[in-house]
Amino acid sequence: MPINCGIVGLPNVGKSTLFNALTSTAVAEAANFPFTTIEPNTGRVGVPDPRLEAVAAIAKPPKVTPTQLEFVDIAGLVRGASRGEGLGNRFLANIREVDAIVHVLRCFSDDNVTHVDGVIDPVRDAETVATELMLADLESLERRVTPLTKRARGGDKEAKARLALVERVMAVLGEGRPARTTDIAGDEKKTFKELLLLSAKPVLYVCNVEEEAAAMGNAWSEKVAAMAAGEGADVVVISAAIEAEVAQLADAAEKAEFLETLGLTETGLSRVIHAGYHLLDLITFFTEGPKEARAWTVRRGAKAPEAAAAIHTDFERGFIRVETVSYDDFVALGGEQGAKDAGKLRLEGRDYVVEDGDVMHFRFNV
Length: 366
Description:
The chain is an alpha/beta fold. The chain is about 40% helix and about 20% strand.
């Protein structure tokens, strides 16, 4: 299953406009009424990485392929979703399937675009969504207490440990804090993950501002930034309307010129993609050869066989070893042969932990 980020938020905040721009399609209908998006739309986007361009410039293959990140456009949530209001049950089921949450917040005023609460307040909107996720989690955990208690009383050590964790998380939720703020010990991480809690997922806040505020943000986005800082979360400021315009420009020079007139050096989409990548704690490794230079994604801490599996399961199954060189050495020494001549090309085994930017060549036998 691909690694993905779910785009969530209240109705009419710009979720589908952002998704369309990210994927450069019009697959997600954008309109000024709630629940335009019912079934979640899914799209994969290339992750911009100048390092891949540098690797390709040395290897000179005919094909260059970036790594990808998947985004899912999920129906707008309304207050009461945890009780099934609106499309609540479907929304919660969809968000349960994603790895991280990209929470779009409306930070612009427009009389032509209605707001479900009538007044623009992105911090309140963020709290509305967070509360619904926490309420759903609390209900989910409460249903587990009785069976776990019975098993724990019967001497089941695993149930006893799980019950203690569940009760700690419930206490955190009861204080109005998301599950991800629970202090989890190293040996509890697997069990915590198995609880499948919505508010345990990492969150990136995206402030959708008016065109004039795309470069510096506005008073609303500043309030979101203060809120996010208290949570240890990241914030990206974009104008979804601008991103939709930029996405329609095919020429790179034309895009750069358009952004320059707005005081921007890169698209907000690039920042969203990179932030999403960081949110999921992902790293990139590269492969290069006569046919293709390509970027690949693994989670930080992955070992060499897991990286091999990202290319093909046969690579992992028949893994022998990997030839690897750091990106900096690869570029500084003019490629694989130069790195080999300088003694910078290493042979690593199954226990090698992949480093961000590694240029790798796998040896395998099946």
